[in-house]
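sorry to bug you again but im stuck and you know this stuff better than me. theres a chain ive been looking at and ive put its sequence and its fold in token form underneath. id like you to explain what the token line says about the fold, in plain words if possible. anything you notice is useful, everything is just below.
___
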Amino acid sequence: MQRRAFLQLPAGLAALAVGSASEDRDSNTKIATAVDVHTMTDDHLLLLKQIGLRWVHAEFSDDGSYDAIKTAVERFSRYGLQIHSGLVNTYRSERIQLGRPGRDEDIEKFQQFLRDLGKFGVYSAKIDFHPGNTYTTAMVESSRGYRVREFSLDDFRNKVEKQRFDRVYTADDMWANYRYFIKAVLPVAEQADVRLALHPDDPPISMMNGVAKLFIHYDAIKRAEEEIAGGSKYWGLTLCVGTWSEGGDKMGKDVFGMIDDFGRRGKIFAVHFRNVSSPLPRFHETFQDDGYLDMYEVMKAFRRARCTASLIPDHYPGLAGDQDHRMADVYSLSMMRTLLRRANLEVG
């Protein structure tokens, strides 16, 4: 737009034009969505292009080979999409996470995945470390009538929980296994120029099904960063806003404190932009505009921190007639773009 014509616009329209243009800055927070590279249809990719999406988190399931990554990168590029974060199930191997024989073989596979991501300029790779997890105790209907996952701590302890593996794995066991994994893969990530993005434990409960969960508090995240990762700029977070808000006031820092700390230091690489009805001991997942967190304030916090992470919707509520969650995805992405555009205007 020519400068003279721009200056003649009403103030609101001029600001909106600035907000729209600012979305393309590399320094901006990024709106993305998760896609399964093996099942995503061309029709769905076209839809993402049509709504103006530029970034995706690519889920490779069990096939994170070089050829699979190359095929995905080339295919997505035809729709103007770039992979900002990659995920492969290899790191979730019980041999890795429970410290069992054969873990080195699985670690080598994940190391190669990181090297191959780096060859295509993928920014980060998601990891988590909770092999004994239970995410859901029931499916419920929200007050607006959509179906969502609920977790009740009482129901879990009394109706669901049972020892999942051959023995109990203590916090010391799990820290040792996590340390072994990170010490093996972080140097490879650094060489490949790919960042490791740690997801907190969802829900944030210290022991589930006989396995201790580590990443349920700020202090544990700091221990992982400082003591194990040595402050490497290639170790950081997939900050799951939903998970962190599930913990309420028991997390050491709230969502805003985490963004202010890790976001300002460039240590938030990816974000799951999700809301929940309330903190533990009972919550259900919600659309972003239907939970207890003010997600516009969360978006502003990312901009105040100058966070360049890619944000995706997470755990879609079930809408009528929406079998593949496309409507829920578009609804969420449209809301996220609106929040980001407004935050760019207000915060910069």
Q: What stands out?
A: Confidence is low (pLDDT under 50) at residues 1-9, 11-21.
